[in-house]
Design goal:
It is a single chain. This protein has about 150 residues and is of the alpha+beta class. It contains three helices and six strands, in the order H-H-E-E-H-E-E-E-E. It starts with a helix and ends with a strand.
Length: about 150
């Protein structure tokens, strides 16, 4: 009887640890994505340099592709202004390992590019990698979201 009770207790403890890890992963991703969105809106290149991996591959919903240097240049020099980036619902973690997270989230984005206003509803796939004890965005692909 003690073995059964011990096994159940151990199983319950392991389940609680998994739930806590899942919760902390979701909090981490929510924090990272919020920091990314804020840095884009504020044109905060210091924060973006920390959040974006040196090998970043960014795919926009219009087919436009950017690297980290491209994104930073476009944001500062080429008239891109994000006025609102709003996450709809909660980001979902699709894959999680010690050094990699793959997430999906829905966002509504408003801004101005080349003096033309835009409003888009997007589904975003993001790949985060842990490098030098810092989570960085390695890849991102957005597609237009159907309501």
């Amino acid at each position: 009887m003690n073995k059964i009770l011990y096994s159940l207790l151990l199983l319950l403890l392991c389940s609680a640890c998994d739930l806590q890890k899942d919760s902390s992963d979701k909090e981490l991703i929510a924090t990272q994505t919020q920091s990314l969105d804020n840095a884009l809106m504020q044109k905060d290149t210091l924060t973006l340099n920390a959040l974006l991996h040196k090998e970043l591959s960014l795919g926009h919903s219009n087919g436009w592709l950017e690297t980290k240097p491209d994104l930073l240049t476009t944001l500062i020099d080429e008239g891109v202004l994000y006025t609102s980036i709003k996450t709809i619902g909660k980001p979902k973690i699709h894959y999680s390992s010690q050094k990699l997270r793959t997430t999906r989230r829905n966002i509504d984005v408003s801004g101005i590019v080349n003096e033309t206003p835009f409003d888009v509803k997007l589904n975003v796939l993001e790949v985060w990698i842990l490098e030098n004890n810092q989570w960085q965005l390695l890849a991102r692909q957005s597609v237009n979201r159907k309501e």
